[in-house]
What does this fold into?
Amino acid sequence: MEELVKGLRERIEELERNEEEMKLFISKLTSDNLSLVTDAAHAAALRKQLESLLADKNLIKLKAYTSSGMDLEADSILEKKNQELLEHIQKITAERDSYAQDASEKKFFEEEIQKKNNEIISLTQQLSVSKHNVEILQVQLKSQSFDSAENPIETETQINHLNEEILQLRDLLQKKAQELGAAQAQNKELTLKNSKLQDQIHQNELMLSVLSSENKMLSGENYDKSIVENHAQHLANKYLNDLYGKVDNLEKKASSLTTKLLTLSNMPISSHKQEDLDEINDLKEQLAEAEEKIQDFEENDYAPKYAAAMTRIKELERRLQQYEN
It folds into this structure.
């Protein structure tokens, strides 16, 4: 019986060692951003391996209970960490799948652009050939007109035939020109979509980097209240200081214009020269423009960024409150 219990404990220790190995693998998986699809496949395989290990542990507990009557409970901490690993793998898999989808769409747009470029080249070549044929027909038409006296009926038939061919070629040229314009328009549209997609991928990568850094800081063993406070202060400085600076500059400009305007306006009417009146009107326009810029900045630039910054800071404060509780 002691040997059986010893064997079961060794099996559980082996599972704990496997957990450490899986932690190392997860760390490598998180840092490797170059092989998206491969990492997703590894994550799926690792998830199956973890599920298999959990099933093995439950089977060991059952065997230990039925064979020896001893209720050997599994290590609750190990169970919890295994669950955390599974959740982490699922999160990484979802992020990798998202990047893989973005890369697939980007490749599709690039292939479409290449296809349209090839079509444009082909249409251009057809246009060149058609123009060349028209020139040949025009030369033939002129040549036939000189020989018309010898055989009027045959010459008239040839001229009519050539005129029909010219009309057909002109229709073809017009049709190809329309197709070329449509292809160029679609090429421009696809290029714009591809550019927007690349910007979105860059933003996703940047946001993932920021979140990964924050999560690492907030979930580390050396979690400390001062770290969160410093990080919140850093976000406040980053998002708000430049906004405050822009508002201050605009308000200073408006104040300066107001002071100068009042100075000129308080001068006696008799001393107002035309240049002064023009300057007053110009200052009034500048003041109105500055006030309009301040209002536009506060509504369209300051408010959205301020709201985003406050959301991030409140999230950190919420995590800090959880830590303190």
Q: What stands out?
A: Residues 112 and 208 are 29 Å apart (CA to CA). DSSP finds six helices and no strands in the chain. The radius of gyration is 38 Å. Residues 76-146 form the longest helix (71 residues).
